Amino acid sequence: MKHTFSLLLLTCAVTPHIAQAQSNPQAERPNIILFMVDDMGWQDTSVPFWNKKTHFNELYETPNMERLAQKGMKFTQAYANSISSPSRVSLYTGMNSARHRVTNWTLERDKSTDNKNDVIQFPEWNVNGFCQQSGIEHSTYATSLAQLLKDNGYHTIHCGKAHFAARTTPGENPLNMGFEVNIAGFAGGAPGTYLAVDNFGNHLDGTPSSPFAVPGLEKYYGKDVFLTEVLTQEALKTLDKAKQTHRPFYLYMSHYAIHVPLDKDMRFYPKYKAKGMSDNDAAYAALIEGMDKSLGDIMDYLEKNDLEKNTIVIFMSDNGGLAAESYWRVPLYTQNYPLNNGKGSACEGGIREPMIVYWPEVTTAGSSCNQYLIIEDFYPTILEMAGVKKYKTVQHIDGKSFVSLLKQTANPFKNRSLYWNFPNGWGYKNGPGMGASCTMRKGDWKLIYYYETGKKELFNINNDISEKHNLARQYPEKVKKMSKDLGRYLRKVNAQRPTFKKTGIEAPWPDKL
Predict the structure, then answer these.
(1) Sign of the alpha-carbon dihedral angle for 374, 379, 384, 385
(2) Distance CA 329, CA 331 (A)
(3) Residues 314, 86, 354, 396, CA torsion sign
């Protein structure tokens, strides 16, 4: 039986953390697994996150996501940023992207990944990501979530994609970010290849053949095995060792899947080809099912090792599914239907994520929460789960704990506003919600403001989840009020804006146009 609860919304009120770090000494603290998927769209699963099943829910097979949802709580309005690095920095700093200024994806030190634009000049954002060391130019100085967990007795394990910071900066290495173990994490935001037979993009001597070559897995070179499976097996071996530490563990299981390239996972690819799918569609579906198998293997491990009853499992994606490229048979921008567009877009398809939480003896089995939240909320939530009540950070925390939503005891989010700022240019310029913009969600309403054109779009998300009907002209007072709120917030956090090349003047704030 499914239990659904819809809670009132509440304004985000942040309390500065000023006391020294100390953990809850009472009761056995839970192990925590954050299972993060890369570029997974809201509909890339057989688990329906909408109020009805879609074609995609019937197409993809994710039995272990179904299994997790049956045990725990499904969140239907979980948000992240539309690009990987901003989300991952928000996750591990608790900061909104407008504040931390890592607003596009990172790779090379001191080099922007913004695309070219003839009209606007993008700001000097924090292209080097975030670091726990101060004084790194073009980076955000912050206390990592993993560091606080480590300092409070957790054995911290990183497995898979990091993408916290640029190459040659301290932050590119998870061992500098509070993790005691790092498996295959580095600055790259995608794998050179998922195939061990191709050495995961490395030369035989282990030197990378591209900036995206996955490091540290030399023993698998030349073998017929897929990266998703390798990471899973390495993570399970590390959990075996973790048991010997007699400490609770935090595993950040951060898959490169389901990011392109669309390498074929032959464990599942033939099945989808037999369904009549194109090569790319079948490869994508196989990436999804391979990721789901990893989730199932980890859940099986917890059960077999008597760890399930004291281990929290959190499932999340870092941004929307890719929809702006002609990989798919379906028309462009519809890969995440009913959501509009996908990765890189301010539309729902770019920022709404599949999220499930299983907390033994806390979450109600098969329950669903319709309250919206955002990825920086994970920071204080995971610390509260771990019993870390007082802690000190060098940064201001924007996130709010959603533990009370999991317990269904209260709703701390009444009338809450969510904010995004993307004063950048991503790889694909065209399509709904693309381009330099800032965005606000409050209640059922969502406002998108485009820096380059000054255009404003207003949507009622509850009535128009596909964002097909711009209501800005019908509700000018709503636009004015939300523009004022959004502009005030952006100025408060010292957010960045692009500049018009012709005049050298910054684009207006949303409430100044």
Answers:
(1) positive
(2) 6
(3) positive
CA distances from 320 to 78, 79, 84, 95, 107 (A): 11, 9, 9, 20, 20
DSSP 337: T
DSSP calls for 353-391: EEEEEE-TTTSPTTEEE---EEGGGHHHHHHHHTTEEE-
Task: Check if the beta carbon of residue 77 is closer than 8 Å to that of residue 89.
Answer: no
Percent composition of the chain: helix, strand, coil (DSSP 3-state, to 5): 30, 20, 55
What distance in Å separates the CA atoms of residue 401 and residue 153, rounded to the nearest whole number? 21
Q: Phi, psi (5° rounding) for residue 309? A: -70, -10
Tokens of 211: 């900036």
Angle formed at CA 219 by CA 215 and CA 225, multiple of 5 degrees: 90
Residue 512: how many other CB atoms lie within 10 Å: 10
- Looking at residue 450, its amino acid is Y
pLDDT, residue 327, reads 64
Q: What is the rounded end-to-end Cα distance, in angstroms, of the chain?
A: 50
Token duo for residue 380: 């204080």
The rounded distance, in Å, linking the Cα atoms of 346 and 359 is: 31
Reduce the DSSP state of residue 351 to 3 states and report it. Answer: helix
Do the bridges between strand 311-317 and strand 352-358 make them parallel or antiparallel, or are there none, so unpaired?
Answer: antiparallel
Q: What is the pLDDT of residues 6-39, one digit of tens each?
A: 333 332 322 233 333 344 433 589 999 999 999 9
Dihedral of the CA atoms 121, 125, 127, 130 (nearest 10)? -170
**What digits encode the pLDDT tens for the residues 335-360?**
899 999 999 999 999 999 999 999 99
Residues 6+ apart with CB under 8 A from 425: 104, 114, 115, 116, 117, 122, 435, 436
In the prediction, which pLDDT does 329 show?
64
Task: Kindly state the tokens that stand for 382.
Answer: 């995971």
For the record, the structure tokens of 379 come out as: 């920071």
Q: What are phi and psi of 205, to 5 degrees?
A: -85, 5
> Residues of the chain whose pLDDT is less than 50?
1-26
Question: Is the Cα torsion angle 445, 45, 356, 36 positive or negative in sign?
Answer: negative
- What are residue 130's DSSP bridge partners? 140
C-alpha count within 13 angstroms, C-beta hemisphere, residue 232: 19
468's tokens: 């097909």
| DSSP 8-state code for residue 184 | S
Instruction: Please answer whether residues 145 and 383 qualify as being in contact, where contact means their C-beta atoms are separated by less than 8 angstroms.
Output: yes
CA distance 249 to 98: 31
